[in-house]
Write a structure and sequence with these properties.
253 residues, 60s Ribosomal Protein L30, Chain: A, Alpha/beta knot, six-stranded parallel β-sheet, four-stranded mixed β-sheet, 37% helix
Length: 253
């Protein structure tokens, strides 16, 4: 049966933040991430729209929720996809609980993203956190929506393993008083020489403006990635900086 116009309208609406928030759902696309989702968190699948060939193969390998799986053809998939080249399957996924508690926050490192605007950067940072075993990526209300389709695609499935919570840095400091708050700044202590703890919050600032004044006032450790003496770049990409800093922290443990 052909997919209805109302369903197409609904699925297309999930490309916008206001409708993701309204329905508490977001879109995941592609064979790899759909398989990870169905393997690790099948209960979060609200609906699955896929080519018949994909459903036939996946049905032999995965526990597909048949009542939630719908066959679409390539033309229909193109109508509902956010990708320039649709990739076999699209899933509607429920958003997880948006909350963090003191005990898990104190048990390791977390990243706090202060006004990250580029969804590609956001998703890449999720992937970095996943690689280095960082369980929480916390973000200011001024960040891009974590469930933006481009952020989800860039995360390469990391959104399934890294918990994302929108919260102000001030509230996090009140939740876990005394927890070290490291800020990646231009004039901080050389991160390669600094004494670093195994627990704390690492703040990564906005792509153009860095860490906001409000967040900067809450830092108790200022760290920097030193540039080479002959380097000409003004700054590092936010995701690149996050990757380097996470690698340094993990190397000390």
């Amino acid at each position: 049966m052909a997919i209805s116009k109302s369903t197409i309208k609904y699925l297309r609406s999930l490309s916008l933040k206001k409708f993701r928030q309204k329905y508490n759902n977001f879109i995941v696309e592609g064979d790899k991430m759909a398989r990870e989702l169905l393997t690790g968190q099948p209960g979060r699948v609200v609906a699955l729209y896929a080519l018949g060939s994909w459903l036939e193969q996946a049905g032999r390998e995965l526990a597909l929720p048949k009542e939630k799986a719908f066959i679409v053809d390539e033309q229909e998939l193109a109508k509902i996809s956010n990708l320039s080249t649709p990739n076999q399957v699209l899933a509607v996924v429920s958003m997880p609980e948006d909350r963090v508690e003191e005990e898990p926050l104190r048990k390791g490192l977390s990243l706090f993203l202060d006004g990250i605007q580029d969804p590609g950067n956001f998703g890449t940072i999720l992937r970095i956190a996943d690689w280095f075993g960082i369980s929480f990526v916390l973000c200011s209300p001024t960040c891009v929506d974590p469930y933006n389709p481009k952020a989800i695609q860039a995360s390469m499935g990391a959104f399934l393993r890294v918990k994302v919570v929108e919260q102000s840095l001030e509230n996090l400091c009140l939740l876990a008083p005394g927890l070290p708050v490291y800020g990646a700044v231009m004039d901080g202590e050389n991160v390669f020489r600094a004494s670093l703890s195994a627990e704390g919050i690492i703040v990564i600032g906005n792509e153009g403006n860095g860490i906001s004044a409000a967040a900067a006032g809450l830092l108790n450790r200022r760290i920097a990635i030193p540039a080479a003496a002959h380097g000409g770049a003004e700054s590092l990409n936010a995701a690149v900086a996050a990757g380097i800093i996470c690698a340094v922290f993990r190397n000390r443990m």
